[in-house]
Specification:
heterodimer, A: 807 residues, Aldehyde Oxidoreductase, domain 4, Aldehyde Oxidoreductase, domain 3, 3 domains, six-stranded mixed sheet, B: alpha+beta, Uridine Diphospho-n-acetylenolpyruvylglucosamine Reductase, domain 2, Uridine Diphospho-n-acetylenolpyruvylglucosamine Reductase, domain 3, five-stranded antiparallel sheet, four-stranded antiparallel sheet, 12 helices, 14 strands, 35% helix, binds flavin-adenine dinucleotide
Chain lengths: 807, 287
């Protein structure tokens, strides 16, 4: 069965479409033809629909709920309230952050659009009519919409359910609206550095509440089979296995009787990590009726009730010498978590990995403290296209560096270069306890500055400013620089878990007799292209062409256990498991080849897609031949078949980084900002599929643009959410999106089996400070230190007005 | 986001449509392109029991361009307005404006009649029609009547149209050949209504402005015809100082609300900037 036509080694490599190949996405054939299979495409016989009655108030006592009129609507079968859930102890559910969250409002509502009752009907139209007719009598209560007032002495008590529980999941609570206090670093040392410094800058920097806003909203179909006692739950889950375990713990249904399936998911960005009341209510409704029950939220519900992101009020202080050497960093965060603490963070880290806040700089001493508070806003606090709270941290340090540069009258790029961790310092121990695995910041920064001709931009800016002052133009040019370091790939089981589940991940591979394969992973793609890239990793590891490898995720009955996809963890963790499982396959393949070629294993070497005898490449067995042999030969001492599974517990996180530079023109009369140029240089270690990387960078930068230029979820004084539709919530179209230029350097991760680091989130993390710094830079010479995002038209115009630039 | 239930009617003549509206009474609403009405129904801010769809009424779909008069059937879509070269040659501000409404999908369905009859101060065409001095033709059980666009708008979503009347035609004098025009609209993104917008048509002879008309969008609870501001321009050389004075006169009649686009002060300011830019552009285009 030797291959017929001998082809060159290069051709064999090319045929694999392995690492480094810009292979087209295998998913796109169905997505671009409208043949994706999303949760709302699922239709089961007899399926019912559930829809929520939601609170019109931000804070109110529920005096009564009368479902009568709703129940009279033809097709409406049931109206479920907290009273119905109480006997099942399901009116509250545990959150990922150690708090509990009301499934259906228990005696009072704590945020506008909170779930109050669940109407179950034979179709979604009847359900919607029923929702209109449920009569709820509310008594409005005073609202807290400002995190800074949450811990005032006379602040209204929000969480009556835990009012006597002053010991929270992360230590003592110092006020009835306090959730936790968490700190890290050397407080005294940092304060001393601030006291001793030549220069100190301090600023309150708010990263506004935004929302991941995936194109597909959250939803599920729950189906309880009363005959075999099995519950199947289809849904938009970024972590299907974790959902299965949580569902088992909440419902007391044995875990083997629950099957969780994530079909195609239309974007997640952290929004689909948590467990939502809709999942519980649909499940209860299915258990009660014995029929499948679907729940899918609409856009307003998505923006106003399922997991927001950010809402961090960050105070930063930097100490530095007068020639620009940073000597210390101090930060405090007031974290607005909304009505329930439903943040998605590894258990031990209530503020996620915010302590990556020392960024890319060699800062000798640092301290951070974070206070979490309750307010009358929707719960959440998810990692929106970033590892846990990393984008908040990157925004704080990158803004603070610019502010320091301004104070020192130094160029912001130069100040960064002066303080970078040097290549020879890696692995680098940060002042806040992380070990950065690798980096080469100077090279990346230099490449970015050369690419955009940074010096020429500054010259042009000087001319623009002079022309502005002469009244020849009403447009100001800004140059934004950001250099970020991420921490992704959670994470080592020794310190990372979610609800006690270690954050390893997994891959299981089966090689078929004819030399093709199926691989299953514990992760789940939401558009990242896993089926394309993970097949490429395997192709390079086991010498089977990527197109001959099926990749499957998202069905807990078939996939090995894993913690899912978010926080850029798929490639660092599951990608590593894939490579390791591939290596197990190869190790067995080597034994088989040795038997077939009648040599000792040690006499063989691996070459692209085969084992060959050292010094005699003509004598070889291809992976295809080996695969067949594994099924057809009785090999002494070896089991038949060729399969492997790997559960990978990463030794460390990975630390992708990048240098982003952008140029904006600000029209001071209208506040309109034109992003003239944006260059993003990313270093994500080994590059698996450059085309997919580029796509991820484009998408993430577009989200960064959205956040900086307009996204905001805010609330008025009486608790009404503002901007919960796409008319107001800024989602840029192709028209508003500038041309993104990309570049890269490659610094492989030393501990990852293939040196990869994760890239999907970098552009959101680095894009926000780059764009915001550019807007600030446009006004810097006129005296602007800092202004809060979003930099939408009216706020930018206000800045111009305050600086006396308008008439 | 699911509307209440309703009965759907699809007459094929204007008379049938008028008859249906009369017989169904208050609980019936006309639907044209549906791109203002259906979003309201999905939010249950509108809950009609009957929808009378005008799309099969062929007599409402024509564009007529004469040397003296232009008339547009109510059911002409925004996409059709854009596509008509004849219309563009005679009155180019209509294409310029239509291209700034929503996005191509919406413009394929949204009609000129629905846009002006809706009474939403955010819609762009009402200010254009006021600026052009257009007349609306309404047909009802008692026959037809005409009303000036400048008299039509009473408050947000309140117009001079009586229940049972259908807007059939919009007509206006063909603007003088060689006129200058511009529609300047600031918005946050494609698909957004104006923060403020200004429509200008003017004529210039020998370097002097002979006639001018200015309309304003989304800066009050109705569209605005800025008569005084336009008066400032007439007789001037359209120099910067005069344009600024005219813009100030326009701003003086605005009364915008605070919304996601910004506070009142900002939206007034933008109205002024839009007027300045529209006048300057129109002046440049005038022959
Ligand atoms: C996302 C989005 C963005 C938009 N942005 C803009 C924008 O920037 N600028 C803008 O101008 N518009 C905008 N629109 C509105 C769009 O242009 C509408 O299509 C248009 O305003 C209404 O036209 P229609 O044919 O869809 O009317 P419909 O929605 O069918 O009707 C609107 C109202 O007018 C009544 N009506 C319709 N036809 C008649 C008639 N012949 N006689 C009497 N009454 C009638 C209806 O009963 C209804 O009350 C936007 C719409 C959407 C969905």
């Amino acid at each position: 069965m030797n291959d017929q036509t001998p082809i060159s080694r290069e051709e064999r490599i090319e045929k694999l479409q392995g690492l480094g190949c810009s292979r087209k996405r295998v998913e796109d054939a169905r997505f671009t033809q409208g043949k994706g299979n999303y949760i709302d495409d699922l239709k089961l016989p007899g399926m019912l629909f559930g829809d929520f009655v939601r609170s019109p108030y931000g804070h109110a006592r529920i005096k009564s709920i009368n479902p009568e009129a709703a129940l009279a609507v033809p097709g409406v079968l049931a109206v479920i309230t907290a009273e119905e859930l109480k006997p099942l102890a399901l009116h509250y559910m545990p959150t990922l952050a150690g708090d509990v969250q009301a499934v259906l409002a228990d005696e009072k509502v704590l945020f506008q659009n909170q779930e109050v009752a669940f109407v179950v009907a034979t179709d979604r139209y009847a359900a919607a009519d029923g929702v209109e007719l449920v009569e709820v009598d509310y008594e409005p209560l005073p609202v807290i919409n400002d995190a800074f007032k949450a811990m005032d002495e006379d602040a209204p008590l929000l969480r009556e359910d835990i009012k006597d529980k002053m010991e929270g999941a992360h230590g003592p609570r110092k006020h009835h609206n306090h959730i936790f206090f968490w700190e890290e670093g050397d407080k005294d040392g940092t304060e001393k550095a601030l006291d001793d410094a030549d220069v100190v800058v301090e600023e309150l920097i708010t990263y506004q509440r935004v929302h991941p806003c995936p194109l597909e909203t959250c939803g599920c179909v729950a189906s309880m089979d009363k005959i075999n006692g099995k519950l199947t739950l289809w849904g938009t889950f970024q972590a299907p296995h974790a959902v299965r375990t949580v569902a088992s713990l909440i419902t007391n249904i044995a875990e083997h009787n629950i099957r969780v399936i994530s079909p195609d998911i239309g974007g997640g960005f952290g929004n689909k990590v948590g467990v939502y009341p809709g999942y519980i209510c649909a499940t209860v409704a299915s258990i009660v009726t014995g029929k499948p029950v679907k729940w899918v939220e609409d856009r307003i519900e998505n923006l106003s009730s399922t997991a927001f992101a950010r809402d961090y009020h960050m105070t930063g202080k930097i100490a530095a010498t007068k020639d620009g050497k940073i000597t210390g960093l101090w930060a405090h965060v007031l974290a607005d978590h909304g009505a329930f603490d439903a943040c998605a963070d590894p258990t031990k880290f209530p503020a996620g990995f915010f302590h990556i806040v020392t960024g890319s700089y060699d800062i000798p001493v640092a301290y951070v403290g974070v206070d979490g508070v309750y307010t009358n806003k929707a719960p959440g606090g998810v990692a929106y296209r970033c590892s846990f709270r990393v984008t908040e941290a990157a925004y704080l340090i990158e803004r603070m560096i610019d502010i320091l540069a301004r104070k020192l009258d130094m160029d912001p790029a130069e100040l960064r270069i002066k303080n970078f961790i040097k290549k020879e310092q890696f692995p680098y121990q940060s002042a806040l306890g992380w070990e950065y695995d690798s980096g080469d910041y100077h090279t990346a920064m230099e490449k970015a500055m050369t690419t955009v001709d940074y010096k020429a931009l500054r010259v042009e800016q000087t001319e623009n400013r002079a022309a502005f002052d002469r009244g020849e133009t009403r447009s100001l040019m800004g140059v934004g620089v950001a250099f970020f370091t991420e921490i992704v790939g959670a994470g080592p089981v020794k310190n990372c878990d979610i609800l006690g589940l270690g954050m390893f991940d997994s891959c299981e591979i089966r090689i078929h007799p004819t030399g093709s394969a199926i691989a299953r992973l514990g992760t789940i793609s939401q558009g990242q292209g896993h089926a394309t890239t993970f097949a490429q990793i395997l192709a390079s590891e086991i010498g089977i062409p990527a197109e001959d490898i099926t990749l499957e995720e998202g069905d807990t009955d078939t996939a090995p256990y894993g913690l899912g996809t978010y926080g850029s963890r798929s490639t660092p963790v599951a990608g590593a498991a894939t490579a390791m499982a591939g290596r197990k396959i190869r190790a067995k393949a080597q034994m088989i080849a040795a038997y077939l070629l009648e040599v000792h294993e040690g006499d063989l070497e691996w070459d692209v897609d085969r084992f060959q005898i050292k010094g005699n490449p003509e004598a070889h067995k291809t992976m295809k031949e080996i695969a067949f042999a594994s099924y057809n030969q009785a090999i002494p001492g070896l089991e038949p078949g060729l399969e492997a599974v790997s559960y990978y517990d990463p030794p460390n996180m990975t630390y992708p980084f990048g240098a982003y530079i952008c140029v904006v023109d600000v029209d001071v009369d209208t506040g309109v900002i034109d992003v003239r140029r944006f260059y993003a240089l990313d270093d994500c270690g080994t590059r698996i599929n450059p085309m997919i990387i580029e796509g991820q960078v484009h998408g993430g930068l577009t989200e960064a643009l959205a956040i900086v230029m307009g996204q905001e979820i805010s609330y008025d004084e009486i608790g009404n959410i503002k901007g919960a539709t796409l008319m107001d919530f800024f989602l840029p179209t192709a028209v508003e999106t500038p041309n993104w230029e990309t570049g890269h350097t490659t610094t492989p991760s030393p501990h990852h089996p293939i040196g990869a680091k994760g890239v999907g989130e970098s552009p959101n993390v680095g894009g926000v400070p780059a764009l915001s710094n550019a807007v600030h830079d446009a006004f810097a010479h006129k005296g602007l230190t800092h202004t809060q995002m979003p930099h939408d038209h009216w706020r930018v115009w206000k800045v111009a007005q305050k600086l006396g630039l308008t008439d | 986001m699911i509307p209440g239930s309703f009965e759907y009617h699809r007459p094929s003549s204007l008379d049938d449509a008028i008859g249906l509206l009369s017989s169904l009474g208050e609980d019936a609403l006309l639907v044209a392109g549906g791109h203002s009405l259906i979003p309201m129904m999905k939010l249950r801010m509108a809950m009609p029991e009957h929808l009378v769809d005008l799309q099969d009424v062929q007599s409402l779909k024509s564009i007529t361009v004469d040397t003296n008069q232009i008339s547009l059937g109510a059911m002409v879509t925004q996409a059709e307005l854009i596509a008509s070269d004849e219309l563009h040659a005679a009155c180019p501000i209509l294409r310029e404006t239509s291209l700034q409404i929503a996005d191509p999908q919406i413009r394929n369905l949204g009609t000129i009649g629905g846009n002006v009859a809706n009474g939403d101060p955010g819609n762009d065409m009402p200010a254009i029609m006021q600026m052009l001095g257009a007349t609306y033709v309404l047909a009802g059980p008692q026959g037809t009547r005409e009303i000036a666009a400048r008299d039509f708008y009473e408050a947000a979503f309140f117009t001079a149209r009586e229940d049972g009347e259908i807007l059939t035609t919009i007509k206006f004098d063909t603007p003088t050949a060689g006129h200058g025009w511009a529609y300047e609209k600031q918005k946050r993104k494609i698909g957004d209504y104006a923060t403020a917008a200004a429509a200008v048509v003017l004529t210039v002879s020998g370097g002097v402005c002979e006639t001018a008309s200015i309309g304003l969008t989304n800066v009050a609870d109705t569209p605005l015809w800025a008569e005084e501001a336009a008066g400032v321009l007439v007789g001037s050389a359209l120099d910067e100082a005069t344009i600024k004075t005219a813009a100030n006169a326009a701003v003086a009649i605005t009364d915008p609300a605070l919304d996601g686009r910004g506070p009142v002060e900002f939206r007034k300011h933008i109205a002024g900037i839009m007027v300045q830019r529209a006048v300057a552009k129109a002046a440049q285009r005038a022959q």
